[in-house]
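4.2 Preliminary Data

To establish feasibility before requesting continued support, the project team ran the inverse folding procedure on a target of 140 residues. The structure was first converted into the token representation described in Section 3, and no sequence information of any kind was made available to the design step. The complete token record follows.
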């Protein structure tokens, strides 16, 4: 047995691109965007169409805002005006609960806080599937 990776296996980026393409096809009901002309067209049976990296590669370098949310709370403005150094704001999250990872305000994953080289980070414990992300987007 060798430790070499299967050269036929898709890279994580290719697998993610395929997942996104499949989710987009499910969401659009078979409609595809012709990116060259900007006009939508119907491909008919999408199951027989090859899914390539060309579609998603156009957006891979676009920067997005990634944030980690510890919790939320609602307070009246008068409480905000009384805040001072050392004030404590109680959040709705419990200690030990997973933190939400948001991209441009949309939940994409959850994870736990870690400290690496004296810097905070987050270890992802649960990833929201591309099709679930699209379902959540369509509800807004």
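Position-by-position output of the design step:
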């Amino acid at each position: 047995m060798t430790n070499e990776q299967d050269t036929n296996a898709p890279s994580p980026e290719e697998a993610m691109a395929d997942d996104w393409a499949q989710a987009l096809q499910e969401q659009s009901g078979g409609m595809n965007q012709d990116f060259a002309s900007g006009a939508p067209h119907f491909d008919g049976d999408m199951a027989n169409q090859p899914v390539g990296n060309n579609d998603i590669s156009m957006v891979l370098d676009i920067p997005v805002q990634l944030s980690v949310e510890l919790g939320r709370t609602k307070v009246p403005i008068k409480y905000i005006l009384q805040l001072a150094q050392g004030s404590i704001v109680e959040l709705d999250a419990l200690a030990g609960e997973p933190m939400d990872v948001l991209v441009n305000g949309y939940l994409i994953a959850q994870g736990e806080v870690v400290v690496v080289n004296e810097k905070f980070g987050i270890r992802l414990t649960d990833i929201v599937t591309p099709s679930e992300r699209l379902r959540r987007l369509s509800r807004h």
